[in-house]
């Protein structure tokens, strides 16, 4: 009888012990549940990270706008969008707005290394051209720490540091045919369509071009309604797309300034897809476009220092109104 009792106790003990281990099916179910929870949480985590990157990007634009205002306070004019005395597209250039404001973003030592007596493409300015300035890079942009060769212009064989923001040089329409980022392709009749940071220069054999930087008092459309600096990032899959990115220290035409075209393809984040969409001016609206790798929009600093988030689906004519300093249009691109 004692023997039977011991056997029953041992059996209960073995049976109880067997329940302490997971079966293969139970283990697979647990793994599946964990995987499902991770899959549910991952988008929320990614969204939180992107929200943080977008906020950092907005702060960078605020600081850039503040630097431009500090420059204006010291010089009584906005920094020149870009200085080029010569006919497009082989003439070498001088400095441009991201270089002029270096002392106002705590980059005085880098500013001191730039030789304003030499061309932007000169070997004397190689060091500055190749420096990565953190404030000029949006954290959502890709591979901003890599040097690359721009796709065109006299600096196309040189290395430049990438960046994420471009100055607003103005609005280009079929009527004006004015490329405000190039001082050799401007139109006095449509001067009201230029932006706050156009290219300036004296053109040989040409009756008119913008020769002086913009003053705040010239922005009659209102500083809160006129775009100053905005994001320009795009997917860089092809070699052409990669080399059409933003380069902060490259003054030539559109590499640190963009134009606004009244075409929706000019505010998307895919350069190659933009080229595939037909429209006036061929590929120029893609080269001189706006956009970011944020979801469904991009950040823009206004001339009063405020920053708006502009939807990719914005009415392109409303956006065009915000690109001119004196068009007299009604513009409201206020975002969240």
What can you see in these coordinates?
The termini are far apart. The chain has helices spanning 2-18, 24-75, 97-100, 108-113, 126-129, 239-243, 271-276, 284-287, 316-321, and strands at residues 82-83, 147-148, 160-163, 165-172, 199-200, 227-231, 246-247, 257-261, 297-302, 307-311. By secondary structure, it is of the alpha+beta class. β9 (297-302) and β10 form a beta hairpin.
Short description:
The protein is an alpha+beta fold and 336 residues long. The chain is 31% helix and 12% strand.
Key words describing this protein structure:
single chain, 336 residues, alpha+beta, five-stranded mixed sheet, three-stranded antiparallel sheet, 10 strands, globular
Strand content: 5-15%
Largest sheet geometry: 5 strands, mixed
Distance between the termini: 83 Å
Structural class: alpha+beta
Number of strands: 10
Global geometry: globular
By DSSP (H or I, 4+ residues per run), the number of helices equals: 9
Order of helices and strands: HHEHHHEEEEEHEEHHEEH
Summed over residues and divided by their number, the pLDDT gives a mean of 91
Approximate helicity band: 25-40%
Which segments are poorly predicted (pLDDT under 50) over 5 or more consecutive residues? none
Over all CA atoms, what is the radius of gyration?
27 Å
How are the strands of the biggest sheet laid out side by side?
Answer: 8-4-6-9-10
